Amino acid sequence: MKYLAIVGTNSDVSTNRILLQFMEKHFSDEAEIEVQEIKDLPAFMEPEDSVVPEKVAELSDKILKADGVIIATPEYDHAIPAVLKSALEWISYTSQALTDKPVLIVGASHGTLGSSRAQAHLRQILDSPELAARIMPSNEFLLGKSQSAFDSSGNLIDPHKVSELDEIFREFVLFTQITSKLLKEKVLNQKVKKFTWQE
Q: DSSP E strands: which ranges in the chain?
């Protein structure tokens, strides 16, 4: 499996980035994970000339080529950061690259709740008709007190949180496989329906 792991913040110092970098290393034998920044994307605004910014086009292309997407979001005032919302608006307005794409949401925060409200907010956004992502249900990875959650090498310290992440990631790989199979059958069924008039 190839996954694109989006750092949902423009902060240069982020435990969400460290979390995704840990996942990239920790799951290297099970999947290829590419950590992707969005901090250099322009703020969303409808372009007058309908030309998609190069950075947005590059992000869309990487999403389309990935088997699935992992998004790590912090929590700002009970919501996702503006930079992440802006990136999703670009995708929605242009390529709609997240349509039917399996998505896993994770999050780290300095507080005890581990970005739970922001994750709920992100699920609501990704479920919109314009994005229509396939969000893995009934799973949350919430990393609270994240400033003390990693050692100097960027490894998660708490073995219980590592085990929790292991289980969630294995389920996401399975979710990706099942979603991929369902979507292939969906396409086949659409083709059959399209040509039933010929029978």
A: 2-7, 32-37, 68-72, 102-108, 134-135, 141-143
Model-level pTM? Answer: 0.91
CATH class of the structural domain 2-198: alpha beta
Residues of the chain with pLDDT under 50: 191-199
Cα(first)–Cα(last) distance of the chain, in Å? 39
Q: How far apart are CA 128 and CA 150, in angstroms?
A: 34
pLDDT at site 79: 94
Tokens for 173, please give them.
Answer: 């790989």
Position 46 scores a pLDDT of: 83
* Domain spans in the chain, listed from the N-terminal domain onward: 2-198
One-letter amino acid at 24 equals E
CA 117 to chain centroid: 16
